[in-house]
Amino acid sequence: MLSERGIEVDGSTIYRWVIKFGPELSKRNFSHRDWRGQTWHIDETYIRVGGKWRYLWRAVDQHGKLIDFRLTARRDSNAARVFLRQAMGNARLYQPLVIITDKAHSYRKVLAEFNRHRDPGDQIRHVNRKYLNNRIEGDHSALKRLLNPMRGFKTLRSTKATLQCIETIRTIMNNHIHQRKSGPLGEIEHLHKLFGLAT
User: Fold this and answer.
1) CATH number of the domain encompassing residue 160
2) Closest CA to 15 of 155, 168, 113, 143
């Protein structure tokens, strides 16, 4: 995009922009997100960081809107518990009524713990049928198409900053934002508002 406009920028400069501005972009955009449905699809995928496989936990709602994500070194009940607490904390009033997962045992154990402290009418229904989780698996694939050309990451810090940036940009481009005009001009206007830039 920059070269089309006659601007030459080294790849390392883009990398530094992502590391510096990705987390800030995510933070400023958070309150503008079009809030989520109450049926969540949760799954984890793999990302190579520093030569090791790490686990990227992600949740989307029934409309494909991102709820939250978290990068962990392990794939166990504790990682699932921490991710669900984080996602529910960020969802605030929009707590899940149904959570759809694959057949991993960690989800069943953690959701049982969450439901133990809830009234029967407020308990989260857990559906663990793999074929019903195609929505999150398809979203993983779309994200991986962006990540694969990067050929892995070196540090957790750079990985998290890059993911924050990519997930936020995808949220904006998919128009999962309150009162944003459609199309590229709407995206530009929204980013200008986030950073207080003159239009």
Assistant:
1) 3.30.420.10
2) 155
